[in-house]
Design brief:
The protein is an all-beta fold. The chain is built from no helices and 13 strands. It is globular and about 50 Å long.
Length: about 140
């Protein structure tokens, strides 16, 4: 898996270049692998209800990234998705931009939605983490 990494004194984050999912998260000082199974990495989730189908999700980890702007000097990565595909297989003109910045002691996610579709984006889950592991005993 091809990844991009952000790291500071306390955290190391690895993101998939294919779908923008956070595939690994490690506490640097202790070695605790908070997220340790890349195949379970997630990025964002949208709920886009449509007529006759209230539960119409968009899973970020199933979307192919349209653009990646790494700015490793500022410890920041910007992922962009020009359109999204719903679980019903419908492509929608919804642009998602996710900026992840690793400051001295925290991770900051900024998510922007540009909706040019005929549907309402009802919920946005960002960041969306999967498979969080307990710290070692």
């Amino acid at each position: 898996m091809d990844t991009l990494t952000l790291q500071n004194k306390t955290l190391k984050l690895e993101f998939s270049k294919e779908n923008g999912a956070l595939v690994a998260l490690t506490a640097v000082q202790t070695g605790w692998k908070i997220l340790d199974r890349p195949q379970l990495g997630l990025s964002f989730r949208l709920l886009v209800p449509m007529e006759g189908r209230r539960n119409n999700p968009v899973y970020g980890e199933k979307q192919k990234v349209s653009s990646i702007q790494p700015d490793l000097g500022k410890n920041r990565i910007i992922f962009g998705w020009d359109t999204v595909m719903t679980e019903r297989g419908e492509e929608k003109a919804i642009r998602v931009t996710q900026t992840i910045t690793l400051s001295e002691r925290q991770v900051i996610y900024e998510t922007t939605i540009e909706n040019h579709s005929d549907l309402v984006v009802e919920n946005v889950y960002s960041p969306y983490l999967g498979d969080v592991q307990h710290p070692p005993v």
